[in-house]
Amino acid sequence: MRLMAVDHGEKRIGVAISDSTGTISYPLAEVGHTSRKGDAARILELADSHAVERIIVGQSFDEEGNPNPAGRRAERFAEELRSHTKVPVEMWDESLTTQDARTVRLKLGGSRKKRAGHQDSLAAALILQSYLDSKSYHSTTAGE
Prior knowledge:
Blueprint: E1 3-8, E2 12-18, E3 25-32, H1 36-49, E4 54-59, H2 69-82, E5 89-93, H3 97-108, H4 112-115, H5 120-142
Parallel strand pairs: 1-4, 4-5
Antiparallel strand pairs: 1-2, 2-3
């Protein structure tokens, strides 16, 4: 099963995809924000062209565990996706993925200029990998 993750931002949307086995995620694209409807159409085009069977949308929360403003925007975006596709769209906690993406890029090395680029697709890959790891863990322990 191929899955896609979306890291919804105000300026850009990071997109990641899994391998066909649904085991490993990798960055796919960064989409510039235009409008919720336009953004959803572009994400769904990518999902269709990669035969995606599930879309994961990252959502952030405040200290009390409630969606923060960015998390509420992500929820509205997920609703827009759902209204235009039969592909299941699921929310997933994206806490600290942007910071984790910065850390990963720093560890990968390269010039400061290269590291200064956008990390949205890498953040989406981290969201998706977290989702995949969680589901893999549950499926392997369910039969025990």
